[in-house]
Amino acid sequence: MAAFEMSTVRAAVVGYGGAFGMGKYHGEMINAAGMQTVAACDVDPARMEVASNDFPGIRTYTDVDRLLEDPEVDLVVLILPHNMHASVAVKAANKGKHVIVEKPMCISVAEADAMIGAAEANNVMLSIFHNRRFDGDFMTIRELIEKGVVGDVFHIEAMMGGLHPFGNWWRSDKKISGGAMFDWGAHIIDWILHLVPKHVVGVDGYFQKLRWFDHTNEDHTELTIRFEGGANASVEISNLAAASKDRWRILGTKGAIVMHSWDKIEVSVDHDGYIAKFEAPMMKTNQQAYYNNIAAHLMKGEDLGVKAEEGRRIISIIEAAERSSVAQQTVKPAYS
Ligand SMILES: NC(=O)c1ccc[n+]([C@@H]2O[C@H](COP(=O)([O-])OP(=O)(O)OC[C@H]3O[C@@H](n4cnc5c(N)ncnc54)[C@H](O)[C@@H]3O)[C@@H](O)[C@H]2O)c1
Question: Quick one: 124 and 51 in the same domain?
């Protein structure tokens, strides 16, 4: 892909939902990075009123096809239900727009390939909003591992969930969400692939539907990533876990990192008999760094931080896990 040297980047947020206020969050970071939020689009006119209040003077649309005809929009940021990411991203790329897609990139490898193909064919940027790479807890854990504090990591467990019925929203509908692993699972798998930067040789999945039959997402999903050399990492996302477990349990050849909850990183080390336990000071979360990189990429030709292929490999791991669960055997994900 050619380096971009745009003098201004005029952005539109597509999907201005009320669940977490993500449209405002993206729009503000776009502006803080030196680009301009100039438009917003949502099928719900009430949400466009909210956008107009948040960003006075912004152009609003209730039809994404009309927004994509706006010649004064260079970049679109898709903050939509998961099953819409691929089709809108492909349309936007075909209209010559640079594209950022919220995580998960999409809900199948075939969709990811179509998105990457469209971006390449139109020579536009495609990036996935893996903002949690810039979370303070993750950056701290990553630094501890990269500095060798716990030796070579050979086992990771990460968990999110508990025992609770599904909320009545699109996130609980497998056709729209992709399934239980696609929401938080996308963040956790992205984290793990950075903590263990080794070749993935296979994935085992265990997806179960046992209790909450009023919604179609799986009640309990687990996957284990097998890395070259034997290291493994498991992710559990559950609405059916009456007993929870640690958020992170990371074992290395010289120690361990554990997060029982969100606010404390506990480290135990044994360096040749020098034994210590300590709480690691947590770095400050800086999700703005994601957009600063986008601005630097589009305006100054800097390397893109979160590439589409990195979003795709997460989707390929979840897809392999689901196939493994059905086949009851290890499946190799569709990336090398
Ligand atoms: N990275 C993060 O930290 C983070 C946090 C929350 C949500 N998300 C992601 O953001 C995305 C959206 O989630 P949300 O919580 O904002 O959902 P949401 O339901 O609050 O918002 C989705 C919006 O999309 C709109 N929409 C639906 N069809 C549309 C169409 N054809 N054209 C335009 N707008 C349309 C809906 O009206 C709704 O307002 C998902 O991918 C989710 O996983 C990411």
Answer: yes
41 pocket-lining for ligand 1 (C-beta < 6 Å): yes
Computed over every residue of the chain, the mean pLDDT equals 97
Q: With CA atoms as reference, report the closest residue to 221 among 202, 208, 203.
A: 208
pLDDT tens-digit series, residues 137-158: 999 999 999 999 999 999 999 9
> Is 21 in the same domain as 168?
no
Q: Which domain holds residue 104?
A: 10-129
Condensed to tens digits (0 to 9), the pLDDT of residues 188-223 reads 999 999 999 999 999 999 999 999 999 999 999 999
Number of domains in the chain: 2
Return the HEC string of 207-276.
EECCCCCCCCCCCEEEEEEEECCCCEEEEEEECECCCCCCCEEEEECCEEEEECCCCCCEEEEEECCEEE
Alpha helices in the chain, H assignment, sequence order:
22-32, 45-54, 64-68, 85-94, 109-122, 136-146, 174-177, 184-195, 288-300, 308-327
Whether 80 is in the pocket of ligand 1, judged by its Cβ within 6 Å, is yes
Q: Check which CATH number belongs to the domain holding 238 and give it.
A: 3.30.360.10
Ligand 1 center–CA 331 separation, angstroms: 31
Separation of CA 22 and ligand 1 centre (Å): 7
- What does the block give as tokens for 88? 């809108």
Give distance in angstroms: CA of 128 to centre of ligand 1.
14
CATH of the domain at 105: 3.40.50.720
**Whether 178 and 228 share a structural domain:** yes
For ligand 1, whether the C-beta of 247 sits within 6 Å is no
| pLDDT confidence of residue 1 | 59
| Cα 272 to ligand 1 centroid, rounded to whole Å | 50
- Structure confidence at residue 261 (pLDDT): 87
